[in-house]
Amino acid sequence: MSNEINKNILTLAIETSCDETSVAVMKNGREVLSNIVASQIEQHQKYGGVVPEVASRKHLENINQVIERALSEANLSFESISHVAVTYGPGLVGALLVGLSAAKAISFARQIPLTGVNHIEGHIYANFIEHKELEPPFICLIVSGGHTHLVYMKNYGEYEVLGKTRDDAAGEVFDKIGRALGLNYPGGPEIDKLSKKGNKEAIRFPKAYLESGSYDFSFSGLKSSVLNYLNREKMKGRKIRIEDVAASFQQSVIEILVEKTITCAIEKKVKLIVLAGGVAANSGLRELMGEECSKHGLELIYPSRKLCTDNAAMIGCVGYYNYIVNKNSNLFLNAKSNLKFENM
Ligand code: KG4
Ligand code: ZN
Q: 8 CA to middle of ligand 1, Å?
């Protein structure tokens, strides 16, 4: 081990909240030495969604190998690690417990600090990894399979949650509509691809604005409207152009996400918009948000696709910032499936 490495803080980060077993080694929070993601998508595809029990078992099978691969890719051993960061919620409780138990075991055996990380905060921090110059304040739209949050990040660890979904998360609605269209799980990336071949104005699906001034979201009306459209067309024996349904549905989702985010940035007088979470990989969302940001003189950034979806590097990044201000956890840290992301 070189002296250079010795001076640095090396974080081993573990993420097992849903269907990816991921372990990363981060140097000083923002430099990725390794970021291994073992996806379980194939195991869940035949059920059309994540089966919690299958997810826990797969994490258990994978975790030790993924830890070893992350260390070996970073060219390091356990002895060099300064601290362990782990997702402790929100997520599937059985899945979270696998990562948490591994993290506690390493922390205890090596006598190094342990930091519990909120998965949603992790998604925001994925942006700090690739954009070295990025600093708060900014408005962040977090759109994933389980969450849809509009957040004003004022400083590191300081947040004002301005809006949330009142029903389905954006990614969840992509996956449900994907299933109704007969696409593979997860539906988000498939709908994104199909939309490029479809006409986004072919069908007018509704958008829910909710009461005036609200930054909350609601996607259940849109979801029902797409499902009703598909049933109606089938009953009438009409041919459905799934590319057009995909494109029109996607357009409704992204228009509402973009409109509320831009309005919020203007109201808060914040010049920078940041995207995060699996749905931030969506080409339509990136494009429309980019166009609207240029129109309003706002700057837009988002992570590369690999860092939009679940990964441990983003968890290590939050963990590092907590560690340097001594916001550590102890070995009683427990998994919290419904851990909230609130004003802090
Ligand atoms: O952040 P993530 O990996 O997991 C959660 O924390 O939930 O997000 C997964 C979600 C899935 O719902 C998936 O369909 C969606 O992100 N997703 C996309 C795209 N890529 C992933 N949705 C729309 N367009 C995409 N390109
Ligand atoms: Zn996630």
A: 33
**Model pTM score:** 0.95
Q: Which residues line ligand 1 (CB under 6 A)?
A: 18, 144-146, 171, 174-175, 186-189, 192, 277-279, 281-282, 309-310
Q: Mind listing the pLDDT tens digit for each residue in 11-30?
A: 999 999 999 999 999 999 99
Give the mean pLDDT of 296-308. 98
What the chain holds in terms of domains, given with CATH numbers, is 3-124+308-323 (3.30.420.40), 135-303 (3.30.420.40)
Q: Select from 216, 233, 235 the least CA-distant residue to 225.
A: 233
Among 143, 279, 315, which residue has the most ligand 1 atoms within 8 Å of its CB, making it the best to mutate?
Answer: 279
- The pLDDT of residue 125: 97
pLDDT at 120 over 60: yes
pLDDT averaged over the chain? 95
- The CA 130 to ligand 1 mean position distance, Å, reads 19
What are the phi and psi torsion angles at 25 (to 5°)? -120, 125
Residue 207: predicted pLDDT: 87
* Ligand 1 atom closest to residue 145's alpha carbon, by position in its atom list: 7
Asked if pLDDT for residue 228 goes beyond 70, the answer is yes
Ligand 1 geometric centre to CA of 252 (Å): 17
What tens digit of pLDDT does each residue of 146-166 get?
Answer: 999 999 999 998 999 999 999
